[in-house]
Amino acid sequence: MEALDLNNLFGVKDKVVLVTGGSRGIGKMIATAFALNGAKVYISSRSAKDCEATANELNALCQDVNKAGGGQVIPIAADLQKLSEVERLTAEVAKREKYLHVLVNNAGATWGATIEEFPDEAFAKVMTLNVQRVFTLTQKCLPLLRAAAARGKRGDIWEDPARIINIGSVAGLRVPDSEMYSYSASKAAVHHLSRNLAGRLGWEGITSNSIAPGPFESKMMAHTLRTAGDALVRGIPLYRIGSPEDIAGTTLFLASRAGAYVNGATISLDGGRTTRMTGGKWVHSAKRPSAKL
Q1: Phi first, then psi: what are they for 190, rounded to 5°?
Q2: Tens digit of pLDDT for each residue in 175-192?
Q3: Which segments of 139-226 are extended strands (E)?
């Protein structure tokens, strides 16, 4: 029964991971989860200052848990809007590593405007970063991902596949409550791109899945939570926004032995917001607990 031990099922120790947009928000939550559980984590963001600060913070945390197998965080600043920066980021990782076990495509942008005023250049910017660069970075990382997959192969079985984890959004699963046309379209595209990658790369021992988070604490959500947080939470059956543990647990599952047979899935991580019933008396019950942001 050793194979069912929690460390065997959910362990990511010594895996090499790249998290884009890893200096803040959901990306930082994901990077923290991997690092504290013994992985070597590369994080990227546009801001070198933010990247360095986050790496220093997480490395200090790793030192605190080092006896339990804390990992390491390495910052590489990169503006992924630019193809040249994608190529440079990949080259920097390849200089240091022979394998990339997990690629987390998390970097993204959003834009809100009325349908009459939505700028053409804003639509293109969001689609480029949120969709095209997910594909481009995955494409450039394939040699490292394939090397990791080959290392985890036992005979004809991809026992420990390499993993691609794409961060989508519930905005790509349902029509959002505000006018954010390019963002919701881009996240729907990411979910389907993940399935495309799963169908093609699964044969090579590389799985591809997406996570569709609902509201979490992040710079992207800060304005919404500040101005309409209570109303937003009232629409979530579990009556709270997501926590670091929620995104950490889901990501570690997909990256570990426990998730090795999951390929082409989109996991909705939203407390039930996309599936809630709205017609029952319990929806507005006075007995509901106070909202938890």
Answers
A1: -60, -40
A2: 888 889 899 999 999 999
A3: 153-154, 157-158, 162-167, 206-213
- The residues near 103 (Cβ < 8 Å, ≥ 6 apart) are 17, 18, 137, 138, 141, 145, 162, 163, 164, 165
Whole-number Å distance between alpha carbons of 69 and 38: 5
**Contact (Cβ atoms closer than 8 angstroms) between residue 149 and residue 205:** yes
- Digit-coded pLDDT (tens) for 151-169: 989 988 999 999 999 999 9
Domain regions of the chain by residue span: 2-284
Give the residue numbers annotated as catalytic, written as ranges: 183
Q: What's the Cα-to-Cα distance from 12 to each of 187, 245, 260, rounded to whole Å? A: 27, 16, 12
Residue 269, exposed/middle/buried by CB under 10 A (0-12, 13-18, 19+)?
A: buried
Q: pTM for this one?
A: 0.91
Single-letter residue type at 140: K
* Average pLDDT estimate for 236-247: 88
The DSSP letter of residue 5 is: S
Query: What's the N-to-C CA distance of the chain in angstroms?
Result: 40
**Two tokens at 14?**
């010594």
Residues 221 and 26 sit within 8 Å (Cβ to Cβ): no
Strand, helix or coil at 132? helix
For residues 189 and 92, give the distance between their C-alpha atoms in angstroms, rounded to a whole number. 28
**76/242 Cα distance (integer angstroms):** 27
Q: Which class does domain 2-284 fall in?
A: alpha beta
